[in-house]
């Protein structure tokens, strides 16, 4: 049996991300992915048994990669606002630098393709952020509302910043990032 070619898998993932950005998750087919990746459709099926398997595998790769970046330089012992700022900035920068991946992840959340096992792994990877938000509420630094709504507000603002930067070709200077962070902070602070 021939070993899996990691370069080929990366090309399949890259092709999938490009297609999702161009046509949406529901609109892509295995044939489209194979063509975009420059491989035969039969070869694609050697690596992934169907579209759902491909989407779940790519989602897992994207989430793992994102999570490692989101918590870079984050120290749970730091004061709440510093920790929140670190994670917020990491997420914005990741979403802009890996925009196709961000579009893919967002569409996956609104699709039937992501299985419960993937969702459970996702929650586990993002526990540091959940713990930070809970700590902020306990310290009376942020609004005491359900964490799901606080995260929705935070992620929603981040997604819009990334989209506007990419679609309108705007440079996110330090000044612009800090102004947007302050808007987000003002929205959640107690």
Map the helices and strands.
Blueprint: H1 6-23, H2 30-37, H3 41-47, H4 51-70, H5 80-97, H6 99-109, H7 116-125, H8 127-138, H9 147-167, H10 174-188
Helix pairs in contact: 1-2, 1-6, 2-3, 4-6, 4-7, 5-6, 5-8, 5-9, 9-10
List keywords for this structure.
190 residues, mainly alpha, Arc Repressor Mutant, subunit A, Tetracycline Repressor, domain 2, 10 helices, 0% strand, elongated, Homeodomain-like_sf, Tet_transcr_reg_TetR-rel_C_sf, DNA-binding, DNA binding, HTH-type_Tx_Regulator
How would you portray this structure in words?
The chain has 190 residues and is an all-alpha fold. The protein folds into 2 domains: 1-49, Homeodomain-like (Arc Repressor Mutant, subunit A, Orthogonal Bundle), CATH 1.10.10.60; 52-188, Tetracycline Repressor, domain 2 (Orthogonal Bundle). It has helices at residues 6-23, 30-37, 41-47, 51-70, 80-97, 99-109, 116-125, 127-138, 147-167, 174-188. Helix 1 crosses helix 2 and helix 4 (51-70) packs across helix 6.
Strand and helix order: HHHHHHHHHH
Supply Rg. 18 Å
**Total helix count?**
10
Low-confidence stretches: none
What CATH calls the topology of the largest domain is Tetracycline Repressor, domain 2
Tally of individual domains: 2
CATH C-level class of the largest domain is Mainly Alpha
What's the shape?
A: elongated
Structural class: mainly alpha
CATH architectural name of the largest domain: Orthogonal Bundle
Query: How far apart are the first and last residues' alpha carbons, in Å?
Result: 60 Å
The percent range for strand residues is under 5%
Protein name: HTH tetR-type domain-containing protein
Keywords: DNA-binding
GO molecular function, one term: DNA binding
Organism: Niastella yeongjuensis
